[in-house]
């Protein structure tokens, strides 16, 4: 009995649902579907047109054959050469326009460019140019004038040495012993200390030797500049003067 009541209730609910009218879709609105479809078709058409305009030209497929490789190389070189020529032509045109110099149009009627003689370049080896500038008589007169101005200076005697004092060059040549060879006796205490203190006063050994000879050297050494008695003050070396004298 209870089963029959449940089945009857289900049938009643299904009947009521079938009799219920369909609820219209209020979200789409009146005419929305037609307007959306038109916009979609217009967008697709514009996209297809832009793709057809920007599409790169078709390049033949390189199958690795010598003919295909040669064709591709020729195409790349032609494109590169065309761009370089256009760039160079544009640069030259721009430079001429900025310089204010009117470009010259090649024509057989154009005058010949002027010949400019660059300063500093001699044309003595050009016989025609030299013939136009001077003659043989003019060259002879120039040579004669140069000979008239030529002056021969006769050799003269050397001037007399005016310096009064010892000549260390003559002294070096007059000796032949090596430095350090004792020829003169020396006496006294603390000779090395006196030698160092006396020689420290000179900036060069030549002046020390001059003063040594002027003070009675080499026989006497009152200043203590020649403690070893070789006749050379403050380790002065006569070798350079001896070599110069021998030539």
Molecular structure report:
The protein is an all-alpha fold and 247 residues long. The chain has a domain at 178-246. It contains nine helices and no strands. The chain has helices at 2-19, 32-54, 66-99, 127-133, 136-149, 168-174, 191-199, 205-214, 239-246. The mean pLDDT is 76.
Pick out its properties.
elongated; mainly alpha; 9 helices; 247 residues
Strand content: under 5%
Mean pLDDT: 76
Sheet with most strands: none
Q: What is the assembly state of the chains in this entry?
A: single chain
Radius of gyration: 59 Å
What is the strand tally?
0
Helix share of residues? 40-55%
The residue ranges in which pLDDT falls below 50 over 5 or more consecutive positions are none
The N- to C-terminal Cα distance equals 159 Å
Number of helices: 9
Indicate the structural class: mainly alpha
Order of helices and strands: HHHHHHHHH
Q: Any idea what the shape is?
A: elongated
Brief overview, please?
Helix content is 53%, strand content 0%. With 247 residues, it is mostly helical. The longest helix is centred in the middle third of the chain and has 34 residues, at 66-99.
List the helices and strands and how they pair.
Elements: H1 2-19, H2 32-54, H3 66-99, H4 127-133, H5 136-149, H6 168-174, H7 191-199, H8 205-214, H9 239-246
